[in-house]
Amino acid sequence: MYGLILAGGSGSRLWPLSRELYPKQLLNIQNSESLLQATFLRLKECVNPNNIISITGVKHLSNVKYQLSAITPNPIVLSEPISKNTAPAIILGTKYISDTTKEDPVVIAIPSDQTIQDIKAFSSAVNSGKKLAEEGYIVTFGIKPSYPETGYGYINTSDTKIFNGYKVNKFVEKPDILTAEKYLKSGNYYWNSGIFIFKASVLLNEAKKCAPEIYQLLNNFDFTLSQEIPFTEFDKMPSISIDYAIMEKSDNIALVELNCEWNDLGSWKSIYDVSKKDENGNVKIGNVIDEGSKNSFVYSSSKLVATIGLEDTVIVETEDAILACKADKSQEVKKIYDKLKKQNDTTHKIHKTVYRPWGYYTVTGEGKGFLTKMIHVNPAQKLSVQSHNHRSEHWVVLEGKAKVVLEGKELILSPGHSVDIPVKAIHSLQNPYDEDLKIVEVQKGDLLIEEDIIRYEDMYGRV
Q1: I need a labelling partner for 432 at 20 to 30 A (CA). Which of 2, 59, 108, 270 fits?
Q2: How far apart are CA 97 and CA 173, in angstroms?
Q3: CB contact at 8 A, 150 and 196
Q4: What is the Cα gyration radius of the chain?
């Protein structure tokens, strides 16, 4: 069996913690590992880790590779040059598996932004789904609803049992509250988990019948030659979900019930639901002091957050934004995210602290013609060999030792030492030592953006 982890998406409903360039699947909100890492670790209970492929957007490629490299050697990560929703990702990922194995394996496709508490129950459901997939069904996993949720899609099943599953009648969109209550009472509606299992040939055949606009483009991708997904070909793909493209059209779908405390973490309320609560029903994460609040979620990333007398409220603090809303309105956070995006406000896109494969940096100040950063380089890591067309840089070492390569010359800088990087000079910042490296960077120029980087060499494959 092969695994396909869907690691794209922006996680807009978990703003301000989730951003376009560092979405929720890369966050470790509750545990020591991120949602992406937890998905991989969960999946490898059912699938050989060498058979797990992740697919993500080019903007997240280096972070996805870095996180997976921390838990498995040489992870396989496909990079979509542009976001096109789940149907192109799953169908193209399946073609990659077919091309590279020359076989017709069973594939499980799973989102990277869910929590599943009972791993044994998950593995049992996967084994049941695998048997149905081997019989030629595309299998979806459904969760018996415990309340009338309006933020999930639903799946309606017949009473006809097929092995350990049911024949699917139809997929339905996110309902209003009255419809969700009706679904809950009926007993034959399930929440759509977005997890699917199928034989590669079965999915590709269903794509040929149900999504010919995708299928006819597949011959333009030959993964026996390269795992690269060319932009010019991928851009021709329609942007469509796997539900719309195949699941709602196919008559070959079966459902297996997933009974393992599943949550897709699609809103702050869903984070609250799966979190440990105090005696007043509050979830407090970070530097939080409260007096008299009930059933509220308060998250602090840096500053002290003090709350008094809140009820059913969500408060989320980050370095550059604060969200406050009623818990039952947390699905509407996406509207704020979309407004910021429309206004070209970078708060939707990036944090003040930005994580990179080599460490992270924090923007500490900016103004007309200047920008300052605190840069943290992990031991044995180095930034790419690069240059800038529009800015100069000045580096001051605060902690550790820096190896600087500037126009072919090597410099070793200790705390208190500094160096100037002129415009267009080819340079690299490196930390080949055992201790963390911290420097202050001052940029000056007429265009101070991350896109003003020309890379010549990079140990993380970003050239």
Answers
A1: 59
A2: 30
A3: no
A4: 24
Of the pLDDT bands very low, low, confident and very high (cuts 50, 70, 90), residue 256 is: very high
Q: Which two tokens stand for residue 202?
A: 């079965």
Instruction: Give yes or no for residue 117 having a pLDDT over 90.
Output: no
Q: For the chain, first and last CA: distance in Å? A: 33
Q: What is the crossing angle of helices 86-101 and 200-210, to 10°?
A: 140
pLDDT band at 22; cut points 50, 70, 90: confident
Distance of alpha carbon 455 from alpha carbon 447, whole angstroms: 17
Distance between CA atoms of residues 429 and 421, nearest Å: 11
Beta strand pairing call for 409-413 and 381-382: unpaired
230-236 long-range contacts (CB < 8 A, ≥24 apart) are: 230/81, 231/81, 231/82, 234/80, 234/81, 234/82, 234/84, 234/88, 234/92, 235/81, 235/82
CA 349/CA 16 separation, integer angstroms: 10
> Measured between alpha carbons, how far is 152 from 175 in angstroms, rounded to an integer?
8
Contact 258, 143 (CB under 8 A): yes
Separation between Cα atoms, residue 49 and residue 163, nearest integer Å: 28
Q: Label each residue of the chain as H, E or C.
A: CEEEEECCCCCHHHCCCCECCECHHHCCCCCCCCHHHHHHHHHCCCCCHHHEEEEEEHHHHHHHHHHHHCCCCCCEEEEECCCCCHHHHHHHHHHHHHHHHCCCCEEEEEECCCEECCHHHHHHHHHHHHHHHHCCCEEEEEECCCCCCCCCCEEEEEEEEECCEEEEEEEECCCCHHHHHHHHHHCCEEEEEEEEEEEHHHHHHHHHHHCHHHHCCHHHCCCCCCCCCCHHHHCCCCCCCHHHHHHCCCCCEEEEECCCCEECCCCHHHHHHHCCCCCCCCEEECCEEEECCECCEEEECCCCEEEECCECEEEEECCCCEEEEEHHHHHHHHHHHHHHHHCCCHHHCCCCEEEECCEEEEEEEEECCEEEEEEEECCCEECCEEECCCEEEEEEEEECCEEEEECCEEEEECCCCEEEECCCCCEEEEECCCCCEEEEEEEEECCCCCCCCEEEECCCCCC
**Both structure tokens of 66:** 């870095």
Q: Which two tokens stand for residue 308?
A: 């008094």
pLDDT band for 409, please (50, 70, 90 cuts).
very high
